[in-house]
Structures are given as C-alpha cells and as structure tokens.
Amino acid sequence: MQKRPVTAARFGMQRIDLRGDADARGHKLGSVGRNAVAQVVFHSALWSCVNSPRLAPVARRMADATRAHFPEIHTEIAAMADGLALPFDAVFAWNARGDLLAGLGDGCTTVQLPGAEPVIAHNEDGLPGLLGQCFLADLQPDGAPPVMSFCYPGSIPGHTFAVTGAGLAITVNNLRLHGIVPEIPRMVLTRALLKVTDRDEAVRLLREAPVSSGFHLSIAQAGASDIWSVNFGGGEVHVVAHTRPALHSNHAQVSAPVMSRQTITASSRDRLRRGLELLEKGAAPLAILTDTSGAGLPIFRSEPDDPDDENTIAQFQARIRASRIDWQVHTPGQTLPAHSGTMSLPQGNVDA
Fold it and tell me: Confidence band (pLDDT; 50, 70, 90) for 10?
C-alpha cells in the first residue's frame, strides 16, 4: 500500500438536537441520515450482505429480543426506519451488522491516558463514502442525562464515541470474534449504555444482557484517574483498569475462551504496534492518531486501497475533569476542531 501524506480534508460535520421520546428521536435520526443512506449505504455490498434472506431469521430473533429487553431502543430503530423511508427489517439488520457478519471490517484506534484528568482520544474509521456524511447528535432524552454522540447515517447512537451528563466518556472499537450465536445486537447494548449512571452500572448491564458479538470499550469517569478497557462478546465481559497510558485497535488484548476466537487483521496489528511506539516516545494523542509513518499499515487511514475498506471519518478527544468533560471532534487531518464543547456534570459526580 502506498502511504499518502495527511491532507487538510475539508468536510463539514452537521450537529443536530435529538429531543423528546424514542419515537421523536428515531424519526429525526432517519430524516437526517436519509440522503446518505440512499446514496451510499443502500448501495454498499455490506447492506446487501446483512439483508440476505439467509440471515433474516437471525435478525428477526434479535429484533424480538430487543423489543423484550430494550423496548425504547426498538421503538427508536422503528422510528428511524420510518424517517429513512425504509422497511424496519432492513434497518434493524443494518444495526445488527456486526452480529450478523462476524468478520465485519470496522476499524478504529483509541488512545487512553489515565491521570488526574484522564484523556481519551479516538479515530473513528468507517466506510470511505460516508466521509462528510456523519454527524454529531446532542441527545436530550426524557428522564436521562444529556449525551453528545457521533452518529453514522442509518445507525443508532452509541457505537462510536460519546460523552454523557453522568460523567462518562466512551469510545467503541470493533472486535472480530467468531463462533458466537448472537441473541441481541451489540449496537443495542452500547446504545443502552448511554443512559447508565456510572461504569459499574455499564458493566452490570453488559453482564446481565443476552449474548451479542464483540466490542471493546474505553470508559473514563469523572472523579476517577484510571480508564477502563471493557471487552465484551459471546457472554464474556472483561474489565481492565488502566493506570498507565494504553492504546487499543481492533482485537482483544485479554486471554479468555471467547476472546481467543478472534481475527487480528494486519491493520489492527500494525496500528497497535505503531501506536505503542509513539506512546513510548510521549507523543500527543492527536499526533498519534494522525500518524502515517512507521512500518506496516498506518494509524490514520486515508488510502483508497485500505485492506478493510476503512478510512478515518472523524477524530475525537475528551479530557475528563472533576466537574465537566471538555471535548473536541476533528474532521480527518484538521488541526482545528470542527466542533467542541463542555459537558457539565452534577456536583459530587465521582467514582464510587
């Protein structure tokens, strides 16, 4: 692969308000993402694969489980399908894509810097055709803390990166685990995590939930100096509390029966190795995430021939302070953020 220098890609990033109940939020998600889904997602090979007749029974079973365990999220997906002007079954399958297809090519890289004011930084890697089509959503759900979440068109919030009014900063990385019979989509579980009050509740939710495929979460909490790595999938949940700088790409770094049944791509391996080299040298988080040097495949992904068909879509950084989370989101390769903000937290919001 020929490595190209990072260029100042000038793509906009819309920011929207999502207020009201699940029906109102879902319908707006669909309306905002309708053009991108019609022009890019609907014509992708991935959309065709997850909506194949062979996978329909599995998707229907997971939809039933979502309705039973998380009815509000089921309503949100149904309303989003209405806003997209697409059938519910097709849109639900898209939101279960990582469970229906174990080898899904989703990427992402996360830098974890524990300390008095922890920092999480993250490259969101996705379908190249969606560069400039994704958006930030400010969720104001009824009876729950506010949330800022990055969203893909046609997908529910929660499986990318987010900060919450409960004092959490969360990033999500794909794990390619095999041999799992999914009962509920992993994206439904990470959507549910946006309403939890702390990390303990997040882990409890995952341990009590039906079986899904795998994700790695980086979770920082206001008042705590460490950053948690949470690997889950196939009924396993593993928590590692990092007190020293760490980096994660797209494979589990814990030894366990399910976690050992994984595919480690060349990109995931190379990004991890290069990122750890840069951490050792004391590089700044966004400098690590914009790196294209070193041996192997780059951390910052902009190549048209990327082997996983992934490009960096957005870059995120959050500093978790005792009373607020300061965050910024960059379009790929840009020094100045496209959006930034502060999530104010309730007084006394500390890790128990």
Answer: very low
At 344, list the tokens. 């104010």
Q: Is residue 182 part of a domain?
A: yes
- Residues 210-221 as b or e (16 or more Cβ within 10 Å = b): bbbbbbbbbbbb
* Chosen domain end from 98, 127, 150: 98
Q: Let me know if residue 3 belongs to a domain.
A: no
For 16, the token pair is 């929207």
d(CA 165, CA 145): 5
Q: Express each pLDDT in 133-177 by its tens digit.
A: 999 999 987 778 899 999 999 999 999 999 999 999 999 999 999
Q: How many CB atoms lie within 10 A of CB 256?
A: 14
| Residue 350: inside a domain | no
Token representation of residue 347: 């007084």
Residue 46 DSSP class: H
285-331 pLDDT per residue, tens = 999 999 999 889 999 999 888 888 889 999 999 999 999 999 999 99
The parent domain of residue 205 ranges over 105-344
Query: Mean pLDDT, to the nearest integer, of 126-133?
Result: 92
**N-to-C CA span, the chain:** 48
Regarding whether 112 and 22 lie in a shared domain, the answer is no
CB-CB contact of 106 with 126 (8 Å): yes
Whether residue 8 is contained in a domain is answered as: no
